[in-house]
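Tokens for chain A. Residues wanted.
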């Protein structure tokens, strides 16, 4: 079964109805039908929350969290040693954001694809470690 790990930008694109939201929605629909499994690290979810809290009221944020909690996403709230060590390797080698390295390390640990649109930061990883990234735009 295909496994996807969502980057913050994928969930932000969905919630803000940005370009590529339809691709993310398709993955969520597949998960609802039991065809794929979707995970997201709480580190990446923190980035989503930070993005929205800068522009939304407390009441609006409550609605956003409610919508997120209804999605067929398994949120990973622990960081095991294997994920930590992989995140450290990625951070040292590629010098990308902490959120990205934990999402990528989770994808590696679970044998999944990291769903992102962060070409600027992650293109060099895509060429060095093919098959790890799923570009939604």
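Reply:
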């Amino acid at each position: 079964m295909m496994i996807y790990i969502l980057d913050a930008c994928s969930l932000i694109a969905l919630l803000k109805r940005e370009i590529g939201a339809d691709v993310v929605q398709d993955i969520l629909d597949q998960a609802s039908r039991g065809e794929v499994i979707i995970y997201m690290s709480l580190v990446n979810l923190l980035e989503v929350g930070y993005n929205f809290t800068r522009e939304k009221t407390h009441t609006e944020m409550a609605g956003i969290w409610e919508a997120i909690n209804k999605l067929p996403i398994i949120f990973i709230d622990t960081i095991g040693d294997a994920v930590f060590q992989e995140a450290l390797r990625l951070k040292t080698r590629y010098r990308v954001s902490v959120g990205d390295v934990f999402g990528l390390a989770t994808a590696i640990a679970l044998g999944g694809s990291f769903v992102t649109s962060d070409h600027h930061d992650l293109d060099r990883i895509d060429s060095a470690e093919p098959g790890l990234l799923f570009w939604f735009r």
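The chain has a mean pLDDT of 96. The two ends are 23 Å apart (CA to CA).
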